[in-house]
Model the fold of this input.
Amino acid sequence: MTSANALIGNTKDNNDRYCFAKAGELCLISLPTGGSTDLDLSDAHGSFTVKSFNPRAVGKLTNGSVTSAEGGKSSPLGNAPGDVDQDWLFVARP
Done:
């Protein structure tokens, strides 16, 4: 996986959100202060599942307000299932 901050609109590589990706296989998005973002899957094909993870509590990947994203376009990731002003991770994979 490599840094892919541009996929979530963080072209300045600042500290408000991060993305690590392996093209067409996996995207890990970190939102340190919560909120939401869009994921640019313009160069990907097919459907991706989207799950969220609360790094403050050990547990499973869970569904957020968005559970899928389509390749070939930019898709909103939605909000995490709780504590929207806290840090959350999103996982998108085919």
About this structure: DSSP finds no helices and eight strands in the chain.
